[in-house]
């Protein structure tokens, strides 16, 4: 059972285990480097609108995965492995607020998010982490994979994967973004 957060001294790497607790999400700061272990959801532009419809219809429980404390990685799962897609694609970025409201605590992807999305993450005590586009590395850190919904989408179906020490950097938290420079006094 995951609760969250453990900082290691040697690299200042924060170890996160899913599900991520409210407290662990609250403590994450822009620029923190993290490693994620446990089960995470994988989906991108083809499947995320379908998941949002399930949330709206009240049928998301049929997935068999509790969204509270969950991580969603903006990726497809292929035989070659997994790698992040751009999180600022309209179908993906527009899913971040409703998924956060439904309990997702960490969104993994790449690219700069709009200020409104960063504010929505803050509103729901969720964060966004940028994951390096290193498919081979992530493939070696993916222990299990299973399609849990929409298999007709192939590698873009909703997957549940088990990971061990996925590396990422917190890109947006508490109304701030790694992509925005703060004015110095």
CATH architecture designation: Alpha-Beta Barrel
Which homologous superfamily in CATH is the superfamily? Fe-S hydro-lyase, tartrate dehydratase beta-type, catalytic domain
Mean of all residue-level pLDDT scores: 87
Q: State the secondary-structure class.
A: alpha/beta
Strand order of the largest sheet: 3-4-7-8-10
Number of domains: 1
Percentage of β-strand residues: 25-35%
Helix content: 10-25%
Ends apart, CA distance between termini: 44 Å
In CATH terms, what is the fold-level topology?
Answer: fumarase
Number of helices: 5
The biggest beta sheet is recorded as: 5 strands, mixed, barrel
Low-confidence stretches: none
H and E order: EEHEHEEEHEHEHEEE
Structure, described:
- With 185 residues, this protein is of the alpha/beta class.
- The protein has helices at 22-27, 48-57, 90-101, 115-123, 135-140; strands at residues 5-7, 13-17, 33-43, 71-74, 77-78, 81-82, 106-109, 127-130, 142-149, 158-173, 176-177.
- The longest helix is centred in the middle third of the chain and has 12 residues, at 90-101.
- The termini are far apart.
- The chain is globular.
- The chain has one domain (5-177): fumarase (Alpha-Beta Barrel), CATH 3.20.130.10.
